[in-house]
Design goal:
3 domains, alpha/beta, two-stranded antiparallel sheet, 9 helices, Rossmann fold, 228 residues
């Protein structure tokens, strides 16, 4: 199945529905929570993990079966009940309404596929087989989780923090692009691998020729997991 990969952002203000309350629904809801959403879960009962999310205020729960009107205003829907017929019904309704929908274990009913994800802060690697080989995607994710340590989160956070200063220091887009590549390939990355966040910040400051006060908070955020 051909696909066009995207990363959805800004889910905090969007109505994201999870139809179903079992273990699969719990995994799907957890993925939405990790992306910043507060999903609405519609199910008469909740898996223990979903109950924990509800108690923590991470999800909103409607303790009843799905109703067609539930799709009103929805940006994204995941049909994850244990009833394939109901999942199919939800998928058909979403596609008619032009709503993004993922029907678990039924790629042909989806208009988006939820990939396997390795997440290190804002550094995200997604793996998809178009819904045809989820076990292969899971195996690849396990391999990549061992490959990409927390230093990738630290590097991404550092880049985000210095972006305004980089734009000011190097207004020419071509030069700025070259500086970004130089930074990524510099000792900064290897300093972060070693957990030496202060040294990494100092190297970035030297490269830019300016002090980066906004980067100082990075040390507290990243030095605890700079190592793999």
């Amino acid at each position: 199945m051909r696909s066009y990969p995207v990363n959805l952002v800004g889910l905090e203000g969007q109505r994201c529905l999870v139809i179903g309350g079992g273990a699969v629904a719990a995994r799907k809801a957890a993925g939405l929570v990790a992306a910043g959403a507060r999903p609405v879960v519609i199910s008469p009962t909740l898996h223990a993990e979903l109950e924990n999310m509800r108690a923590a205020g991470q999800i909103e729960h409607f303790p009843r079966p799905y109703q067609p009107g539930d799709l009103e205003g929805a940006f994204l829907v995941i049909a994850a009940t244990e009833d394939p017929g109901l999942n199919r019904q939800v998928g058909e309704a979403c596609r008619r309404a032009g709503v993004l929908v993922n029907v678990v274990d039924s790629p042909q009913e989806c208009n988006f596929i939820a990939p396997a994800v390795v997440r290190r802060g804002d550094f995200v690697v997604s793996i998809s087989t178009g819904g045809t080989a989820p076990a292969l995607a899971a195996r690849t994710r396990a391999t990549l989780e061992a490959r990409f340590g927390r230093e990738y989160e630290a590097m991404t956070a550092l880049c985000a923090a210095i972006r305004p200063a980089m734009r000011t220091a190097f207004p020419d887009p071509a030069e700025r692009k070259a500086r970004w590549y130089a930074l990524i390939n510099s000792p900064v990355f290897f300093l972060l691998v070693s957990g030496r966040v202060s040294d990494a910040r100092a190297w970035a400051e030297a490269m830019l020729g300016t002090r980066l006060d906004e980067v100082h908070s990075l040390e507290a955020r990243t030095d605890s997991h700079g190592q793999r």
